[in-house]
Write a structure and sequence with these properties.
With 164 residues, this protein is mostly helical. It contains nine helices and no strands. The protein has a single domain, classed as Serine Threonine Protein Phosphatase 5, Tetratricopeptide repeat (Alpha Horseshoe), CATH 1.25.40.10.
């Protein structure tokens, strides 16, 4: 009888953990090469921390990366690349709202390139903000320096619209 009770307890715990586990993060590649220009605005010490955070992201240690990046964004709130890295780490941790907020801050920053428009478009798509997605996708398309990425996101938007 105790064996059956223990088995039931294990099954209930496993089911509870399965329900409590965060959903898998939406798929999105991060283009580190597109972040380089704004990162050159940082000092050597800050760039070293960014390098550590980038390595943690590559290793899937998004919480550690987010902790390091949080400190940097407080001292460099206008750096678009830091904001994109923060948004990406939050996205990978399942925080879509935080990712969208950071992507918007990256977009508003006075530095960076068209990647911040594409990045915001992609995050907006993942969060269901179709108006922002279409607007920023047009900006990225007009820049013309990411044609494959823009085309893929346009196709994703069309597929989602056909399903909805």
């Amino acid at each position: 009888m105790g064996c059956v009770r223990n088995l039931c307890l294990i099954l209930v715990c496993a089911a509870t953990l399965a329900l409590a586990a965060p959903p898998p993060a939406p798929s999105m590649d991060l283009r580190f090469d597109r972040l380089a220009s704004a990162l050159t605005l940082l000092g050597d010490t800050d760039r070293k921390i960014v390098d550590e955070a980038a390595q943690l992201i590559r290793e899937g240690e998004h919480a550690g990366a987010l902790a390091r990046l949080s400190t940097l964004t407080h001292s460099n709130p206008e750096n678009s690349s830091l904001r994109i890295l923060m948004a990406y780490a939050q996205l990978q941790l399942g925080n879509l709202t935080g990712a969208l907020d950071e992507a918007k801050k990256a977009h508003e920053a006075p530095n960076g390139n068209s990647y911040r428009c594409y990045f915001l478009a992609k995050i907006a798509f993942l969060t269901g903000d179709n108006i922002t997605c279409r607007r920023e996708l047009n900006h990225a398309k007009n820049a013309g320096d990411m044609p494959e990425e823009v085309r893929q996101l346009q196709n994703d938007v069309k597929k989602a619209k056909a399903k909805g």
